[in-house]
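User: Teach me something about this protein's shape.
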Amino acid sequence: MNSLAILWRGSLLPLGREADPKKSTSAAHSSGSKLPRHKSCMLSAAIVLSLLSLSACTVGPDFLKPEPQQVAEWSKPANAAESQATTQTMDERWWEVFHDPKLSALSQRALTDNLDLKLASSRLQQSRAARQVITADRYPMTAATGSYGRERNSGEGLSDPSGKNGHSAFNLWDAGFSASWELDFWGRVRRETEAADATLEVAENDRRGVLLSVLAETAQDYIQLRGVQNTRAVTEQNLDVARHSLKLSQLRLADGVATDLDVAEAAAQVAAIESRLPALEQRQSQLINALSLLMGEPPQALHAELSTDAPVPQTPRQVAIGLPSQLAERRPDIRQAEARLHAATASIGVAKGDFYPRITLSGNIGSQAMQLSDFGSWSSRSFGIGPQFSLPLFDGGRLRGMLNLREAQQQEAAIAYQQTVLRAWHEIDDQLTAYNASQLRRDSLAEAVRQNQIALRTAQQQYVEGVVDFVNVLTVQGELLATQQQWVESSTGVSLAMVGLYKALGGGWESVYPVAKVATNNPV
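Assistant: First, the predicted structure itself:
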């Protein structure tokens, strides 16, 4: 900076005042006598080196990648379930660990056809275009110019270039090329480019976040759909049992060993179970529509494809979730927050660069003539070249206010980064707990279903033998239906919890690892 200040002080006076030729000549002879040719060359080289060193100067703070808050290891539940999370490298295509071909196919279609992903891709293209606009300032700008005019100047005004003193009109032909280049001595343009690169990274991680959300939502809707279908199947099974009980009570009424109350209670049980089916059909239709929307399809476009019942996708015995230290590189929101902090840091350099002079080299070359026949001749040539600079002196505090704004925005971005990392740890811990708890609940309900099935068979046999009333059969039958539906919901919840865990972990970007055999544990 000091070298260029010396150059400015040495050049400001000649620009503002015409030099005395005699003094200039004597000064030249004097300098020539004092500075031999080799010293003059050394001085020129020093000036060039000073300019080159200034061109490497970059104002503003350099971005230092933050060290995110780390935890030593994932939390472990006191009462561990059968399927456990391991520190093996995560599967890049985590939805395939369910071993459900339909889910894998839908996920692949979502990657291609989802409209939210296309919107995110469009925003990414906009960021790339914006970066291209900003980085163009690093290079010289050239343009071709040309004009023609029929003119007449005032005879009483400034000098008439036509020499006719305003007595008649004349033609003026003009064409040429112009160029300008801002010398980025202070690194302001480089900081703008750095901020644009970071903003582009924000858009890239935004698309990754949308991609992760779309894949997770596809898996969640599909798992819920299969859960609803399994609940409907359980309801229909219980409806068959209730109808069998109704028929049994009617036969016993005909034999005189049952009452009208038994028949009425059995018929009411059948009607109550039947009333559950329309709501399940409605929920199935809603979930199919949700999947159709994720695929970019109209309503019910996937009805024929997904209306057939299928089991709920089951989780593997081991779920690879990677190491805690890999979290910051995997979660798109953490990467996005880091990129925002980088952009905010670079913007401080841009704001500081506005305090320094802007130096621009400009030049033009062309031809100008009043007769078309003279246009392009050697005597019609024109050119101009030279530097320009602009130094802000007074702006009412605008530049200082902008710098304060950028520094405050960087502080906000730094706090947002810390908050994003902390929120990520909380989400993962919550999802690990939910995954373990949902498995324990499912296993307990599976045992409850088995015991209720035994109880129903016993109650039916005792009713036939006349040992118990029909109300006992209805009570056990209702308990069985409730526990079976709860088991299906809990089994669905286990798979949903695993999807939530993978989403909280960032989805996984590593290579594929083999998946352990799936445990069925199906009591229905």
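Now, about its shape. The chain has 13 helices and six strands. The radius of gyration is 40 Å. If you'd like, I can walk through any region in more detail.
User: That's plenty for now, thanks!
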